[in-house]
Amino acid sequence: MLSTLIRGFAGATDGRFYRVSPSFVDSALPPGASVIPRPTFAAWLRAGPLVLINTPNTIWALIAVCMFECVPYDLSRTGPAASAPLSAAFFAARLPLWLGVWLGYTLWWHATLHWFGFAERPFVAAREYRPGRVAHNLVWSVSGVVIWTGFENVFAYLWATGRLAYVDETAWSSRRGALHFCAALLLVPLWRDVHFFFAHRMLHFNALYAQVHSLHHRNTDVEPFSGLCMHPVEHLYYFACALPSLLLLTTPFALLWNGVHLLLSPGASHSGFEDHWQADAYHYFHHRYVSCNYAGTDAGFLDVWFGSFVDTLKPTDQKGCKPRPDAKATRARTRAGPPPAAYRETRSPMRMRLGSARGGGGGRGSRCLRPVRAGDPHLPSASGDADSPSQPRVRGVPRAERRVRAGVGGGGERRRSGRARCRAATRSAFGRPRGLRPRRRSQRRDRHHALGRRGAEGRAAQDRAAAGLRHALLQRAGELGVLPRAAAAR
User: Fold this and answer.
1) 234 in the same domain as 302
2) Could you tell me what percentage of the chain is helix, strand and coil, using 3-state DSSP and rounding each to the nearest 5?
3) Do residue 219 and residue 254 come from a single domain?
4) Who's near 9: CB < 8 A, 6+ residues apart?
5) Residues 338-357: tens digit of each pLDDT
6) What is the DSSP string of 222-265?
7) Dihedral through CA 219, CA 220, CA 224, CA 230, nearest 10?
8) Residue ranges under compositional bias (Basic residues) (predicted)?
9) Backbone φ and ψ of 251, nearest 5°
């Protein structure tokens, strides 16, 4: 038992830290092609007491203890923390410390893996080292360190001014103080696993992914500096892991230990290599395929419970992952995938996209998918390509005819109120209401196909109604003398 702990100390494999893969990896297979063991809740609980012995948490805990003892918080009434929740003096004292610790640790991983060749099994064999991408990741990561220092400043201000109770480090010699210290060491990594899954899963909802989390997923082939490369809003979600300290009687060491874990752990888990002591193929699959493995390696049982667990590469990547361009799109990937060839993007109210007569569309500028039919002067032909230079961008049909086709009446209908337009804009920005939107890809595909099958009769009826309305309007105009009767008859 003791020899096993020594050989696996700090997450090492057989006492080695580099050029050695985890025990489940088959070296005869390409990197990432080995099957990850299925994580269980029982295994997570059994590993809890050993979380500081046989995992990389050992190194991070030692760094946290050294920081707390060598550079402790100044929580006196006259200290920089007591002056304001966001104090320039506090930032001047703590920000260089955090930048030095984070940059030194992450740069070590980057240099040993990408410059000095300490590892030999990258997930993407033909990977390209791009300094511009590294600089991009570095800038956004530094913003995360600044935001964390702000979190730390708020907590220190509450402690220094007496607004929030805490356990002083001088009480560690007592039984209660020692219990707080040990509880912080053991529970912070476990709490981090649970919080990361749910915060991460929420960031993959369409609106948040499109505007926030897509920045992190621009790195399809990860490297250490990409671990903390996040949008500032995502940093707020990420560092919210420390908020339980507002409700529980904790020690300042728990906050600092949480910060060390939050800032340092992403570096190695985004290494992009399989053969080192902090390798994380589990999270690499998430960056490769996006919609899987939302939890960390230790709490993978949560992905098993929620049906998002992936244990190996897809069949197309089993012979080795190929390079992929960085995902620069800022919009969420829709579950339905690309539209069928018989559909084109047009400008039309949201109610046309919903395909119902419920009314309350998405405004004159909202985009939707409508079936292409031959003979429509306002739409490209079904055989043509809507994206080719010969086909101009479709601007939609006239407003009166559009309202008739939508089944909401003629041109005499009252204009929608400002509140209705606001609701329509919200639907346009965030998609259909949940009750009307098919949730699965197969359901959406079937809906598109069903519209194509039964749409011919409906479109013919709409055309007849539009023609009748046009004829009636022209006839009425002739009777009123607005147009000559001969023109109205034509």
Assistant:
1) yes
2) 55, 5, 45
3) yes
4) 15, 53, 54, 58
5) 333 333 333 333 333 333 33
6) --GGGSS---HHHHHHHHGGGGGGGTS---HHHHHHHHHHHHHH
7) 30
8) 434-452
9) -100, 150
Query: Can you read off the two tokens belonging to residue 393?
Result: 């961008």
In the chain, how many domains are there? 2
Q: How far is CA 265 from CA 60, 155, 186, 251, 280, in A?
A: 8, 22, 16, 22, 11
What whole-number distance in Å separates Cα of residue 204 and Cα of residue 211? 10
Per-residue pLDDT, averaged over 268-291, amounts to 87
**424: which 2 tokens?**
């329509």
Give the model confidence (pLDDT) of 288-334 as tens digits: 888 899 998 888 999 999 999 998 888 888 777 777 666 544 334 43
Which tokens in the block code for residue 152? 């730390």
Specify the higher pLDDT residue, 305 or 46.
Answer: 305
- Do both 197 and 48 map to the same domain? yes
Sign of CA dihedral 225, 226, 228, 232: positive
In a domain, 337, yes or no: no
Task: For 251-360, list the strands marked E by DSSP.
Answer: 343-347
Task: Flag whether 191 is in a domain.
Answer: yes
Residue 403 sits in the same domain as residue 444 = yes
Pair (404, 258) in one structural domain: no
Domain co-membership, 213 together with 356: no
Nearest-angstrom CA–CA distance, 468 and 479: 17
Q: Is the pLDDT of residue 336 over 80?
A: no
Task: Say which DSSP state 369 is in.
Answer: E
> Would the pTM count as exceeding 0.90?
no
Using the structure block, give the residue that is written with the tokens 């992905």: 303
Cα torsion angle, 135, 137, 139, 145, sign: negative
Q: How confident is the model at residue 436 (pLDDT cuts 50, 70, 90)?
A: very low
275 and 186 in a common domain: yes
Tokens of 312: 């190996």
Asked whether residue 149 carries a pLDDT value surpassing 80, the answer given is yes
Cβ neighbours of residue 122 closer than 8 Å, sequence gap 6 or more: 31, 272, 273, 274
CB 31 within 8 A of CB 122: yes
Beta-bridge mates of residue 369: 345
Q: Is residue 330 part of a domain?
A: no
Distances 332 to 141, 161, 213, 351, 438 between C-alpha atoms, Å: 22, 44, 9, 22, 17
Q: Would residue 431 be called left, alpha or beta, if left means φ above 0 and alpha means ψ between -120 and 50 degrees?
A: left
How high is the mean pLDDT of the chain? 75
Give the residue numbers spanning the domain of 258: 2-317
**Does residue 328 belong to any structural domain of this protein?**
no
Q: What is the mean pLDDT of residues 360-380?
A: 42
Both 249 and 295 in one domain: the answer is yes
| 180-193 as b/e: b if 16+ CB within 10 A | bbeebbbbbbbbbb
